[in-house]
Amino acid sequence: MTNPRKNFEESRKKIGYIDRKDATQADYDRIGFMSGLEVHQQILTKRKLFCRCPAGIFQKPDQFDAEIIRHMRPTLSELGEYDGTALMEFRTRKEIIYRLANKNACTYEVDDTPPFQIDQEALEKSIQLALASKLNIVGEVHITRKQYLDGSIPTGFQRTAIIGIEGSIRLRGKVIRLIQLSLEEDSCREVSDIGHTRIYRTDRLGMPLIETVTYPDFVNPNEVKEGCDYIRFLNRSTGLVRTGIGAGRQDVNVSCRGGSRVEIKGVAHTKWIPELTHVEAFRQWALLAIRDELKNRVNPEEWKMSWKEINPKEFHFYYPAINEAIERGDTLIAVNLPCFSGLLSHFTQPGKPFYDEFANQLKVIACVEKPNMATSEDIDDVISSNVFDQLVVMFNASEQDAQILFWAQERDVKTALDVIKERAERAFAGVPEETRKSFVDGTTIFERVLPGADRMYPDTDSAPIPLESDYIESLRKSIPEEVAARYSQLMMWGVPIDTYTYIFSKNQYPLIKKIVEELEINPKFVGVLFGHRLKNLHGEYREIPFKLDRIYDMFQYLKNNNMEQNIAPNMLVEMFKHPKMDFESILTMLNYKKISKEEIVNRIAFVSDKFVPFRKDTNEQDRVNSIMGQLRLMSEGNVNLTELVNLIKK
Amino acid sequence: MSEDIFQGYKGEALVLLQQYNVRVWGAAEVETTRGHFSGTVLPRAENDDQKHIVLKIATGYNVGVDIDTITDMKEVGYKKAHYKIPEKEFPYTKGLPHVKLLGTGGTIASRLDYRTGAVIPAFSPGELYGSVPELADICNLDTEKIFAVFSENMGPEQYVALAKKIGEEIEKGIDGIVIGHGTDTLHHTGAALTFMCQNLPVPVVLVGSQRSSDRPSSDAALNLMHAMTAAGHGDIAEVLVCMFGPTSDEYGFLHKGTRVRKMHSSYRSTFRTIGDTPVARITRKGVEPIKEEFNPRRNDRNVKIVPTFDNRVAMLYYYPGMKPDMLDAIIDNGYKGVVWVGTGLGHVNKEMYPAIERAKAEGVHQYMTLQTIWGYVHMFVYDTGRDMMSKGIIPLGNMLPEVAFIKLGWALGQTHDPEEVKKLMLTPINDEITDREPYNGYLVYQGGSPEVEEFIRKVHK
What kind and span of H or E run contains A322? Predict the structure, then answer.
């Protein structure tokens, strides 16, 4: 085979991968980009969903009062099927350790007590959130068990219930349909996952959250982000949800034409969505190209991989990872993949050739820590090609074949071989349905086989909860106006678009509206003050608590004292530095003096006379700027600056 | 009988389904005042109301639709689900012991029951092999469902049937017996079988699960593996209760049927040997004896089955201010035995004395056990105790109240002669009364104390 790195680059060009910054709608149409969202947001409640533990009390990874161990086994779904993910997790034979802290977990969290009655506060808020998303509210809430065998929930399933189905959200010029909104208990936070041991902490476990699921209506990466932002703003605008790190996260479903639904799990920031969805759609496009090439070469029915345990003494390895493995006593297995030449190093994602998928599945399913393998097509050339020449002879392989050499503990070898065989066979089908874990650079790695509807099972520990129409109508009245309405109001006010994310994510719209309407302050000015100045100050003085209502008080103070608002940005800075200082003192800090407009205007002539042209092409604007520079400080709070500029120009 | 096509629906909901001709398992399109719903109509649980229809929607979730909001409904398809644990023939492996699994009900293996919305037991060897394939590496298995009752419905009639069945199986040459059982009264059955099946040549292991096997974190599979291992390979030929040691999935304990008690309503590690240590620890690798002395496995078949029970026995849990009419009522109703559960060292109030005397006069056998669970009845310490003994109450040492109840019923099934009954009651069959309480027989540690906190931080509870 030619140089693997060169092959990687060439295959990238061949499938037509382009960077996102250069991509247009036409590119996404070409590959049939399709995406949908599952947006999770914790609900703000005092207690967890199914027990009386406090919600929102967290522990550090190594802080715990007790540990318990569980193993998960697959069970049947209600329709009598085993779920694919369940079987995969069972094969990994993980020992799951839970770290419990008394302050945030009881016997419910570790499944030693059946659930208590559902938290009424969470139920009510979830109904309000479903109403805000314009969903059809169910007549009776049925608690369902959704299997998770990764151990992230000690019962082995998540208790979850549909609150509403079939709604829609309106983005700029587009309607996105919603499938459903459910009320769920949150899962554990992972501490570590090494070899056959996975450790979780149970602080977040059982906290109520909602999941809003859209149809796959998004046709480009930016649209997905916009939709996600919208749903998150909508949730926050109700004031019923938790905010801050970890309170919201989303799973993003992506496919390309001919591809499969792949779920990118737990994306914490919406700003990562465009790159992730872009890269994933092209990864699938690349897998389809690999599939086509494979099918050209061989009939899938006839394809058969072969493998042999090899004796390390018969080879010379210079790769430290292999030598360490040999020292540990790992078994070395060579695998021959017929017809995979040039495909193992085929492009799939930026910086990631196809063989990366094998390595990650070895890690996740067979519990073999990385680095766990080398191939005849490593783009970084980790093993001398002599080794693979030897393997080619050993297998009597053809030029079209490729080889993988992996190392694992003896007990994991069988699963590892199954994993390699299955991944290779799936290459003939194209894109495996799976969930993937995301990285900041926009790439993803295999996490699990995608679970299906087969993992659902009615919760036999709880009875259905009827929702009366009168009750729903009474809740409907408390729903704030829709985010779409707020969006267009800000636009009409002329507030710049770059402020929206901050304003909605911090739910500042109600306060802005109050200031604008009650105090009759220029909306654009208020919007910019929040969206730019306040945002910067929040970043800069993160540790100082600041009460937002003070901004309203400030505007009221300016109005009561007949002052100009243009001093507000500077006052805001001092208010942050001195959260308890009264407004009069703040003005003193700013050296503010009450000067009448006439007095300032009178000074124009004096300052203007003193203006000395400082370069040859000094013009009128320079004169105005210079005068403004000298009068600005005394003008702030006393006179409108635009008005002043006009006066100077005269 | 024709198939019930509206399974579980009653009243208004049933009328509506009939009106629109929509069946259970039908794919339905439902128009309501709250919007459109589509999904498969599921059966309705017996105790749920008549106001809702349950749909499984495309995403796999179930939702209920309020019938008052329904304006139209149409069946557009039909697909009945067949809920079935995959059945595979349990493989025969030469050289592995033969174990018989007797089913009584309970949650060892179970499946969904739409009638009640709860889980019902599922059982054949094939089903068990389908859900716990590891069992085939442990033993060759036969199963027989003797009855299907929940633990709380087990009683003397079942004890007798089980005991006889155990006798038959042993005679037939079985290597070990496992009994699947609900956990609520597992320890009652453990005691009953100990008294009824004496001189056992093979292990008889009672096993249950605290979390039903329809959940991935169930303790059923591990408990079953442990029980099969103990029955097939273990050397302790006694009636044993096999359940989780710690709540973690680590190991199990084998408890004597006469010294074990369910101590928590829902914990996996709920069964504890009281006043002693368990007989052994059990892992998938095998039995690790904790007690040095036990009844070892034998090759003979000389089991002694004593399947008797007189259920005219009552328990009286004493409470302050208890009136003698409680005991009078028992006498008047023809009961022949009373197990007292007294306070402290074994006391009841003086007001009760005349009734106690009357009971003795009328031939009612009275024995004393303790509310404290741990410790011995000491009726010589205070006058009260001595008074009571003189009036006919016999102390039962450290016999557990539930065990005493079972034993008295068993004894009265054989004789009503006071001395004979007393002899039976006070002669231990398998440590229901022990001579001594070892220092580690009573360990109820108190959370919050620094040493205990340190302990549970390090050791899996």
Answer: helix A320-328
